[in-house]
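Final report, closing paragraph on structural work. Over the funding period we assembled a curated collection of sequence-structure pairs, and we close with a single example.
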Amino acid sequence: MFQNLQDKINAAFKKFKNKGKLTEKDVKEGMREIKLALLEADVNFKVVREFINQVTARAVGSEVLESLMPAQQIIKIVNEELTALMGGTTVKLTISPKPPTVIMMVGLQGSGKTTHAAKIANMLKKQGKRPLLVACDIYRPAAIKQLQIVGAQVGVPVFELGDRQKPADIAKAGLAHAVKHGNDVVLIDTAGRLQIDEAMMEELSDIKQSVSPHEILLVVDSMTGQDAVNVAEVFNEKIEITGVILTKLDGDTRGGAALSVRYVTGKPIKYVGTGEKLDAIEPFHPERMASRILGMGDVLSLIEKAEAAFDEKKAEELERKLREQSFSLSDYLNQFKQIKNMGSMEQLLSMMPGVKPGALKDVKIDERQISRMEAIILSMTQRERDKPDVINASRKKRIAAGSGTSVEEVNKLLRQYDQTNKLMKQFTGGAPGGKKFGKKGRMNMPF
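Its predicted structure, as stored:
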């Protein structure tokens, strides 16, 4: 995400860092490089001009030029202005005090409306809501079936009346169904087109009038750069959207859409899609995104991912086992599964401060390693998982054959488990000099 943009902005920053004192000329030369970086990232030229003017005006002030560390001051200013450019603060989804809350999903064909309707439904369901998906795309082949499939995957019901009713009538009937059956959120999946046309806009206006949505969320593909911003501008003019969902932010996107759409439309980015899975959606945090663009990491999002993947009951059970020193290979596997649930290792590493996307492009992280470990452990008997000491040479051969791995890989796994077990014993007081749990000292895994 934003790899090229981050590299070029950091290259501009290096010129500042190499000088003890800065002149107004130094600042303007650096700003010129940042300007080129933003234009290459497909950021709207009006946005670039406004951004550069704002940063330059602040950076040539006496507080920067007379500072002992002017380079850090400029980085701080760029960070603050990037955050402001993307909206400044996180804007949450509007939830009506009188249910049901109606959310209308709009966008071009192929932007990901159907998938992201299910993603939002899944997220709201986890928050205790009872969402209903309404199928109003009656044109695209299998559109209704696709919504039913993703709805079933997240356990959310789908209301549909086939493809012979008007979309506005289907939306109205879906809302009535939600009221009758106690659904407190209604997500309306609308039809898209390959390009914007009057018929589509008229249909969306009809749906809007029939159900009076609390939110109209535009789903746009961030990989299309400036085109995504143009689409957002037209949709906002025609039907007045309330927010934007940027998809494919996990791809090698240039970043133009994320940095332009708020400025051009005046409407906030509310969510970003970060992958294909139905839980790969995050609230958009302007300050965190600015930090990631500048290579400062995104520790808060990393913590939130860990908390979402973390099972409190399993943690308590693990704590008990560690106290009793009965930590088994099954427990070892469960910890890695929780890490796997947090997302890809590349994605997690990109949130760490100081880890630049460019530094990861040639690093091949073998995501299959956890799958191989899982296969090895699942090829063991329950006794072998509970008491690894019984695993002799012949058992290792059987386990390797059963898991499609080698004896060397089995040995490696057992060594890693043994080292982890020893470390855990130190923390739980099972070894000399070990640290015991305090009253508030619960050890939170995964490790």
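Confidence is low (pLDDT under 50) at residues 360-365, 430-447. The beta strands are 101-106, 131-135, 158-159, 185-189, 215-221, 243-247, 269-273, 281-283. We thank the funder for supporting this effort.
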